[in-house]
Amino acid sequence: MCFTVKSIALDYEAISQNPRKVLEYVFKKSDSFSVVTDLVRPYSKLPPCCKQDKWTIGLREYLISQEAGAREWPGTRTRDGHKVLSFYKACRQTREILSAWPNVFRACERGLPEDICFYRGGKVWFGTTSHERTADVLAVTQEDEAFFDAFKA
User: Fold this and answer.
1) In this structure, how many other beta carbons lie within 10 angstroms of the beta carbon of residue 22?
2) 129, 151 in Cβ contact below 8 A?
3) Dihedral sign (CA 61, 62, 64, 70)
């Protein structure tokens, strides 16, 4: 027996033109989210020091876990060993913090943490790859499909 998981490729430009609306929806449907930041020297310093720390400082009390030296996260594999993958609780407070940032879907242009992904039940369900300007919804519910219909690629 073969099972398939429905997914939707999204129009990255469309979601980046509506960041607050998209963030409001994905936060309501998620348990946690992750972002990727870039380590700065000295790389061995603990806790890790990253280029995007000024953006993530407000999220620290909601930190679930961090992986310094991450080489893989949803949608990406890299040889660069100077990345930090951070997981945070998805709640009203973290949504408000991210909503105060410049557009999270324009991370590369704004020097923000990249590749924001959202999880429910421990599995990624909304993922982005910032530098490729791609976004996908995985394990789509009917409600997800209705919401993201306007953002399909």
Assistant:
1) 22
2) no
3) negative
CA distance 145 to 147: 6
Annotate the chain with three-state secondary structure. Answer: CCCCCCEEEECHHHHHCCHHHHHHHHHHCCCEEEEEEEECCCCCCCCCCECCHHHHHHHHHHEEEEEECCCEECCEECCCCCEEEEEEECCHHHHHHHHHCCCHHHHHHHCCCEEEEEEECCEEEEEEEHHHCEEEEECCCHHHHHHHHHHEC
Q: What is the pLDDT along the chain (153 residues), one digit of tens a residue?
A: 454 558 899 999 999 999 999 999 999 999 999 999 999 988 767 778 999 999 999 999 999 999 999 999 999 999 998 999 999 999 999 999 999 999 999 999 999 999 999 999 999 999 999 999 999 999 889 999 999 999 998
Place of tokens 């394990």: 139
Compute the distance between CA of residue 133 and CA of residue 76 in angstroms, rounded to an integer.
Answer: 12
**90 closest CA partner among 120, 66, 129:** 120
Query: Model pTM?
Result: 0.92
Strands 83-89 and 123-129: unpaired
